[in-house]
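Objective 1b. Sequence-to-structure analysis of C-type lysozyme inhibitor domain-containing protein.
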Amino acid sequence: MRSIAFLLTICAAVLSLAGCKQAPAPEPAAKPAPIDLGPSQDPAVTASYVCDDAHRVDLVGERFARITLSDGQTVTIHYVPKSRPPSYMGRGLRFAIGEKAVMLIQNDGVAVHCKPIQ
């Protein structure tokens, strides 16, 4: 009698677990769209640069630089008046246009080279 009760208990447990559905696996994060490396179509952009690691910098007028990071984020930083070399800074980034090199520099010191987009 005990064995029948035990078997019925096990069957009930198996049946209740059979009704449980496993949670679906989360979908992988979508990869950002590749950054456009062609000339800007924005008439306010006076110059554009592409940087190592697939970053893009667009100078907007004389006062701002719009940076599109390789992960798709867009950050706007401000021109630093009377800076030498001419620089834009903000949000942990510095964009400097030197005579021999153009660099995008993070606050932690990591820097990448940039070149003009023709």
